[in-house]
Specification:
mainly beta, 18-stranded antiparallel barrel, 7% helix, 49% strand, globular, disordered N terminus
């Protein structure tokens, strides 16, 4: 089946070798984003090999990777189209799929959806596997930005108000696995957005409610490396989750642009006896509830954009082990990293997921930070530069780690669990050159200093090298 998919993709690419093709009234158009990354990273996991333990080492410092995304639009009219997007990668050169002879089967379905308008109405519907992102500041969404299966409906209400609603199913761990365990194994999320826009301002309040099967896989996604065989949850039960937030943008004082975002969310407790460690037999239920606020301020000049940014995300209290209630915003999905205030510690690399980034976090959960940047500075045509300096720290109570050593309860979307006694200093110096209209190269240079409190972590200290991490990488992107 995978080989057949690859053949179909090749045939579609041949059809798309010209910009437009017609067959039976269908207009076929091809889009794509092909990314390549070559770089060097040292101390990216803040560990050394002094203990001669393979699990206690950084990855290879030198890397070469690629990721190919190709989208095919089958357009019947302005009211109806089908969309397929395939992905090859991310592939590390020399490894499976990109090793000698390069004959691995590695074509993946990225998106597959139908986009149509209900006849004689202004209501548009999109159904299938699609990209969905919640409104956010330029730092990205800490909560949700991913490909997901579902239905999204949108319609204008008047000149300045529209409405969007959706139903998505991000988790269904036991579906079609032959186990017979199909009770409470889905997570269904329903959402409503109300975008409003006026002269020089816009605001989008939104809300989501979820019917959560504890055995659906959502807790695996949060607390373990996500595995659809559901290794974390042990007992079938159902619970719920909800989120509410708003994004506000102010442009009326141009050249100043101000963005503000606030989110509150709760994932009710469920029986996670299978998690072990933090979970005890007397208090097996774990849930999380928390909030996030973020803001950016940019001043757009002809030669560049000076800016300030900052955020605060709530963290775990010291009594979490007794109550089973964590204090972080529950993350729904971020495709490897959807929060990108910086390009090394967070997911802000030019082609995130191919180049090196997110060595601290993909969501910003349990952290706060401030930063200053000078972005898109350009004195030569097609060449621009961004200099960024940021300081961030943890909001998780250090006493929780001192008592229980709960570092393993970091979210799967994050690489580090930072407490109130831990902090990071990061500097990015990134350069972008537009070689051709559709072809861009980026040089990213990054330095990161992680400072952890050894008294807090004690014998549970996972950080053998806590001084510096360095990055130098060159990225290429062909976008058509």
């Amino acid at each position: 089946m995978k080989r057949l998919t690859a053949i179909v993709l090749a045939a579609m690419l041949m059809l798309g070798s010209i910009s437009t093709a017609y067959a039976d009234g269908i207009d076929i158009k091809v889009k794509g984003q092909w990314d390549f990354a070559f770089g060097w990273v040292t101390n990216g996991k803040f560990k050394d090999s002094a203990h001669h333990n393979t699990s206690d080492r950084d990855d290879d410092p030198l890397f070469a990777r690629q990721r190919i995304r190709t989208q095919i639009n089958f357009i019947s009219s302005e009211y109806l189209q089908g969309v397929l997007m395939f992905e090859i990668g991310t592939l590390d050169w020399g490894r499976k799929g990109a090793a000698l002879d390069a004959d691995g089967i590695n074509v993946e379905t990225k998106r597959a959806y139908l986009d149509w308008v209900i006849p004689n109405t202004d209501i548009s519907l999109r159904m299938g596997i699609q990209g969905l992102k919640l409104p956010s500041t330029p730092m990205g969404s800490p909560l949700f930005d991913a490909d997901v299966a579902g239905i999204v409906a949108s319609s204008p209400i008047c000149d300045w108000i529209s409405i969007s609603g959706f139903w998505i199913r991000p988790f269904d761990a036991y579906s079609n696995d032959g186990s017979g365990r199909h009770y409470d194994d889905e997570t269904d999320i329903f959402g409503l957005l109300l975008p409003m826009e006026g002269d020089g301002w816009s605001v989008t309040p939104w809300g989501m409610y979820g019917f959560v099967g504890a055995s659906s896989g959502i807790y695996d996604y949060l607390f373990n490396d996500y595995n659809p065989t559901n290794t974390v949850t042990a007992n079938n039960s159902h619970t719920n989750a909800w989120w509410a937030g708003a994004h506000f943008e102010l442009t009326m004082f141009d050249p100043f642009v101000f963005n503000l975002e606030g989110i509150y969310g709760s994932l009710r407790r469920a029986d996670l006896t299978g998690l072990g460690g933090f979970v005890s037999a007397s208090a097996p239920e774990i849930g999380t509830e928390g909030w996030f606020i973020g803001a950016t301020l940019d001043y757009k000049l002809d030669w560049g954009v000076p800016g300030l940014f900052g955020w605060y995300s709530s963290g775990d209290d010291d009594d979490a082990a007794e109550t089973g209630k964590l204090g972080r915003l529950p993350v729904l999905g971020n495709d490897g990293g959807s929060f990108y205030p910086t390009s090394f510690g967070f997911a802000g690399s030019f082609n995130s997921g191919v180049g090196a980034d997110t060595i601290v976090s993909g969501s910003g959960s349990g952290t706060w930070g401030v930063g200053i940047q000078l972005a898109d500075v350009s004195f030569i045509e097609n060449l621009s530069h961004t200099l960024r300096v940021a300081y961030y720290a943890g909001t998780n109570d250090a006493d929780l780690v001192k008592k229980t050593g709960t570092s393993f309860l970091k979210y799967s979307t994050d690489n580090l669990y930072l407490t109130t006694n831990d902090n990071v200093i990061e500097v990015n110096f990134d350069h972008t050159y537009q070689i051709y209209e559709n072809f861009t190269t980026v040089l990213e240079l990054g330095w990161l200093r992680l400072n952890v409190d050894h008294d807090t972590w004690g014998g549970r200290d996972r950080y053998d090298e806590t001084d510096n991490a360095w990055k130098a990488q060159i990225l290429f992107q062909y976008k058509f």
